[in-house]
Amino acid sequence: MRLTRCHRLASTSVKTQWIGTNLGSLALDDGTTSRNWGFSDQAAALDWVRANIQDFGGDLDRITITGQSFGAIYVTSMLGSPKAAGKFSGLLHRAIRLVRFSVFRMPGAMIFQLNGDKKAQLECLRALPVKELANLAAQVNVLTKDGTYLTTDRLTLDGSAPIAKVPVLMGMLRDDGAPFTPYPISGDLRTNLINGGFAAQADAIISSGKFPLPSGPDTFLNIFNVASRAY
Prior knowledge:
Layout lengths: L21 H4 L11 H16 L11 E5 L1 H8 L12 E6 L22 H10 L2 H5 L33 E5 L16 H7 L6 H7 L10 H12 L1
Parallel strand pairs: 1-2, 2-3
């Protein structure tokens, strides 16, 4: 059969870039400051896309959201967000692992003490210069069950809570953990796995055979590659 007409497949892409710092994820269990600020910005961006996509030649019924690494946390969490329900038709998830992306916690405890006067803690936070807060070495980058944007403790798949029923394509990135892996300070693999946060799993990682040590000329780089893959 001879084709006499050519159909061009067109797509419209809208990209929002949000830096996952303390300013977007910090929340306190004080009944007031408990919102997913960065997540709410992204939900607003999704609303903007829906309101304007047709002006760019896009299809309102074929909106796909995608996220890589930390961005994958957000797009996957949108599956269970009432504020995002029905607003997209597909999802692409690209990250190093999956299980960590479905847990919602109250991140304020990561910076402040678990116990104490919440009001005093909040006043201390407000007195801190924004630049200093944003540049803290310890970053808070988890989501919060705030009752508005996220209403469950985790992403549920058993029907006990609402979830978007859309096609999902998940992929893994081999080197996604490299930025979070400390560079080796010795030529011993086990020592560096322990220093990298794998004290309990170091021996199992080595003996599993799943993370073979590369044979390159740079010993430290070889060890770094193993540790980053294990992450």
